[in-house]
């Protein structure tokens, strides 16, 4: 008997499967139940490594199981080909990103085919294909028309090495999640998606999904919904003339009261000072507040720090007195206003009421600066040197003494509402999605800037706006995209008035590309729409999606938002992209304990193992090496 030759046997049967179109899913003309089995499509920034095999092997086994049980299974594959990983690799190897990416797609396609997995290659998509990103641009335009895409000045995370903006989700421990550089803060005009408009639905609809509880909890915590009240603290009238010399400034409503958001209105009698963010204090200065030099210096230094630096639990609290007071609306007593960097300008109202007896950060701050501490809630905890943050029964709170925290919250909020000083309110940690990227290798944002008409969408008959083949695609330090160098492409006519105008030069965050790719799999060759309603109805929402937990608060959240945005415009008839989700584990580097990654240079090429043991052996090994 001849020795088993995996290479010869596997090639024979893989060719047979391809000739018979064994794994091409049928949209119509059968009585089987459809099942779209989805895996996260890979970045073609280097060779396929064994981590990809691990990610794809077990879903492939499950797909075969479903087929043997009578399902019509679609197991599609494609490439998430734009973005920093591919661009940085191209720069490193002194090659154009287009050539680098296409070369890797060709190689990775060959490697993926050698796996012997049941991929439906007839549905392959690549995000760098103009016929794909044409619809990415079309989706952007629909969101713009619906008020869900907008441009605004905002404080952003800037990676000095990659020379581009990072979303909050792409900053880990104050460092860029790709290159590890310390992130800076910059004020830039950026394109954003209004994901906050869907904050409640993004939380509430999780209950209908078959997802790991850890993934659901990660999204709930990231969105950070808090229910409480907005409360106005009037500014001491006798001090306004000194702080705001101009009468018209003093008369502005914003400056006659400081508004805070709190989840604990029951502790209002214990609010002994206010703390405002450096951002809010800076805004006051722009409206005429004559701050002291000490305040100006503190604000300037604070605004150079990132959110993570400002909110580190181990960080010593710092602050400076604003020099004037507000009035507690319940006690009617004056309390000092302070400025401190642990309060963030983009969260809530940019100001907090400080209740040091019942909040540890406020307690630490009060102890450092000798500010009053007043206990107003009693429970089983003793107030001995640390804040008592639990609910209980009110004391030292006038007519509310003896009420439970829950009862007092309702009563106090109602009282404030009647006085015009408060109202029920929901607050969120979630920010709008900053999607502008000042890099070359991405989808051009389909907008035109006219000096008379402002920003106008590119006419839909003129998309795709194709990425120009620049020779010099290196990022710049001035914050402008390399596409600003594409002179002839840059100059266009305004679609509204016909005057000279310029194209937007920023490209889109690649998470926009991957937020809808699962829809395109259902109808990848459609030239008239991103996918037909009829075909999407056959396959979507996706019944089961395999991927990594690192996408809990990025790709998964963004894809849910885009789906809900399209549903709100009746462009699709489902409101969740993925009904089922399973997070796989990782292949670890045995020497460093880190996740295997091409970007970290410790990926293992599976080709050698396939040549030695065969693809079947590799796939079975991954299936049984440990919990998936």
Automatic annotation (TrEMBL):
Give start and end of each Aminoacyl-tRNA synthetase class Ia domain.
430-623
Which EC numbers characterise this protein's activity in its record? 6.1.1.4
Q: What Gene Ontology terms describe where this protein resides (cellular component)? A: cytosol
Specify whether DNA repair is a keyword of the entry.
no
Q: Please report the stretch or stretches of sequence annotated as the Methionyl/Leucyl tRNA synthetase domain.
A: 40-181
Q: Which InterPro entries match?
A: aa-tRNA-synth_Ia, Leu-tRNA-ligase, Leu_tRNA-synth_edit, Methionyl/Leucyl_tRNA_Synth, Rossmann-like_a/b/a_fold, Val/Leu/Ile-tRNA-synth_edit
Q: Which GO terms describe its biological process?
A: leucyl-tRNA aminoacylation
The family database entries (Pfam families) matched by this protein are listed as:
tRNA-synt_1, tRNA-synt_1_2, tRNA-synt_1g
Family note: Belongs to the class-I aminoacyl-tRNA synthetase family.
Question: NCBIfam families in the record, alphabetically?
Answer: leuS_bact (TIGR00396)
The name under which this protein is listed is Leucine--tRNA ligase
Source organism of this protein record: Candidatus Yanofskybacteria bacterium GW2011_GWA1_41_6
């Amino acid at each position: 008997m001849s020795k088993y030759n995996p290479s010869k046997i596997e090639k024979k049967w893989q060719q047979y499967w391809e000739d018979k179109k064994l794994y091409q899913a049928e949209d119509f003309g059968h009585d089987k139940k459809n099942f779209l089995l989805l895996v996260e499509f890979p970045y073609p920034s280097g060779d396929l490594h064994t981590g990809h095999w691990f990610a794809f092997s077990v879903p492939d086994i499950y797909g075969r199981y479903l087929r043997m049980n009578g399902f019509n299974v679609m197991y599609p594959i494609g490439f998430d080909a734009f973005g920093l990983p591919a661009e940085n690799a191209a720069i490193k190897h002194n090659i154009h990103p287009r050539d680098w990416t296409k070369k890797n797609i060709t190689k990775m396609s060959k490697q993926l085919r050698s796996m012997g997995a049941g991929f439906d290659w007839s549905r392959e998509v690549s995000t760098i294909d103009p016929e794909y990103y044409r619809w990415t641009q079309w989706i952007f335009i629909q969101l713009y028309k619906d008020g869900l895409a907008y441009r605004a000045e905002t404080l952003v995370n800037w990676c000095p090495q990659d020379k581009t903006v990072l979303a909050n989700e792409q900053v880990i421990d104050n460092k860029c999640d790709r290159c590890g550089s310390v992130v800076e803060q910059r004020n830039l005009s950026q394109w954003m998606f209004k994901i906050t408009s869907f904050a409640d639905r993004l939380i509430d609809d999780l209950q209908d999904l078959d997802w790991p509880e850890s993934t659901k909890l990660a999204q709930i915590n990231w969105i950070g919904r808090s229910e409480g009240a907005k409360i106005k603290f009037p500014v001491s009238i006798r001090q306004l003339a000194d702080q705001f010399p101009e009468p018209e400034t003093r008369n502005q409503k914003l400056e006659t009261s400081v508004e805070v958001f709190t989840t604990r209105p029951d502790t209002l009698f214990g609010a002994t000072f206010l703390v405002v963010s450096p951002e809010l204090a800076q805004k006051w200065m722009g409206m005429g507040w004559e701050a002291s030099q000490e305040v100006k210096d503190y604000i300037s230094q604070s605004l150079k720090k990132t959110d993570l630096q400002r909110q580190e639990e181990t960080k010593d609290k710092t602050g400076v007195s604003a020099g004037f007071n507000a009035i507690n609306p319940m006690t009617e007593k004056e309390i000092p206003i302070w400025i401190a960097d642990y309060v963030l300008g983009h969260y809530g109202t940019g100001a907090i009421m400080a209740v040091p007896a019942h909040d540890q950060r406020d307690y630490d701050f009060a102890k450092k600066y000798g500010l009053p501490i007043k206990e107003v809630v009693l429970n089983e905890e003793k107030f001995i040197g640390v804040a008592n943050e639990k609910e209980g029964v009110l004391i030292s709170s006038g007519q509310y003494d003896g009420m439970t925290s829950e009862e007092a919250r309702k009563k106090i909020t109602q009282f404030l509402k009647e006085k015009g000083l408060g109202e029920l309110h929901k607050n969120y940690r979630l920010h709008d999605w900053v999607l502008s990227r000042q890099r070359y290798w991405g989808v051009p944002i389909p907008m035109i800037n006219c000096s008379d008409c402002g920003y106008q969408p590119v006419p839909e008959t003129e998309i795709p706006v194709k990425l120009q083949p620049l020779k010099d695609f290196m990022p710049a330090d001035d914050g402008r995209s390399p596409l600003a160098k594409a002179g002839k492409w840059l100059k266009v006519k305004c679609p509204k008035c016909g005057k000279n105008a310029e194209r937007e030069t920023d490209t889109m965050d690649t998470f926009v590309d991957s937020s809808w790719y699962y829809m395109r799999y259902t109808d990848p060759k459609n030239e008239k729409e991103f996918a037909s309603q009829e075909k999407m109805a056959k396959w979507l929402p996706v019944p089961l999606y395999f991927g990594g937990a690192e996408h809990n608060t990025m790709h998964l959240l963004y894809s849910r938002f885009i789906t809900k945005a399209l549903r709100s415009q009746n462009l699709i008839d489902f409101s969740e992209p993925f009904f089922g989700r399973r997070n796989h584990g990782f292949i670890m580097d045995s020497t460093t304990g880190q996740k295997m990654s091409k970007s970290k240079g410790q990926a293992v090429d599976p080709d050698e193992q396939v040549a030695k043991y065969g693809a079947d052996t590799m796939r079975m090994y991954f299936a049984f090496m440990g919990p998936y």
